Amino acid sequence: MRTLFIENREEIDAVIRACKTCYVAMSDEGMPYVLPLNFGYDGETVILHSAQHGRMWETVKKNPKICINWTLGEDLAWQDVRVGCSYRVKSKSVLVEGTIEFIDDFDEKVACLEKTMCQYSDREFKFSKPSVENVGIMKVHIDKIVAKEFGAKAVTPWNQNKE
């Protein structure tokens, strides 16, 4: 079984869109800090939201460089059932390195919240004025994106046309 890079942007976007949670890594004065978050995604930016206070908010205000992970799939695969080192979790993973832009404009915050809700539902939503004013919206501009498939079957002449 192999680890393969995913180069096709449509496949990368499909992995992101299939996930319900992303894991956001940041550096809090040199100490790693990771949080699971809901998100929005438009292909160019990732939308995150939180309270406008607390450890995460203070950390990204000091250092807006973050890394985001999405992982899809948890099926076990192995080459030999008796060999532990041959086991893998079949999955696809996307990593984004980016820089946060804090959104303060009311209408842009609403647009970001709408993009976030599109990740989870095709319904139309309303947002109250106090909710929009009190939420912290972060738009992550993608500096780098890398994706991999883990546990892929090695392609050989005798299996290239088989599952």
From TrEMBL:
This is Nitroimidazol reductase NimA-like FMN-containing flavoprotein (Pyridoxamine 5'-phosphate oxidase superfamily). SUPFAM superfamilies: FMN-binding split barrel. Pfam families: Pyridox_ox_2. It comes from the Bacteria. Gene3D superfamilies: Electron Transport, Fmn-binding Protein, Chain A (2.30.110.10).
